Amino acid sequence: MSTPSIVVVSAGLGVPSSSRMLADQLAESAVEALGAAGATAEVETIELRELALDIANHLVTGFAPPALAAVQERLAAADALIVVSPVFSGSYSGLLKSFFDVLDPKALEGMPVLLGATGGSARHSLMLEHALRPLFSYLRAVVVPTAVYAAPQDWGAGSGDGAPGLEQRSRRAAKELVALILGSVGPRPARAPEVSAPFEELLAKIQGNR
């Protein structure tokens, strides 16, 4: 197959950001897993904090500024997606939600996605299952079974209770993502380009249905 492209989306707000650290680790694990399968990958990381104003403008105007539109196009054309969000109030960040709110709802249909999250306590890990996974299921993406959560104590240490540590979980999730990239679920469905009808035509249809 041609070199697959992986887009990594980090919704971290700080610099440095634990969400970006986890995103980088997951991307590195995916590249390693692809290498073990005899393939390479093109990886692009998107920091949503750099697009915050563009996302807000899109929400209120309905039009994507050029930088955001370019990111949306690259994401829709990717072969796989890695998404990492910090936990806020028991859910994913509003910035991440806003970004996917202004994305074409069909853009992720059939796309392999690996989910990750970071938080200040291991107690928030279920956010991945009760909040983030349903979002991407709604968008009809193919989410890998293993989601990866990182609390402060996970960095540079094992779990301490016999469960897989952060590095092991990252590798397992990456292998699941690579299995999808390499075609385990078949090709993504082709999408016909959407063309907006002229305003006059839309208005005529509304008036004709009265």
Automatic annotation (TrEMBL):
Domain of life: Bacteria
Keywords, ordered alphabetically: Flavoprotein, FMN, Oxidoreductase
Matches recorded under Pfam families: FMN_red
Residues covered by the NADPH-dependent FMN reductase-like domain: 5-155
InterPro entries: CE1759_FMN_reduct, Flavoprotein-like_sf, FMN_Rdtase-like_dom, NAD(P)H-dep_FMN_reductase
Recorded GO MF terms: oxidoreductase activity
Descriptive protein name: NADPH-dependent FMN reductase
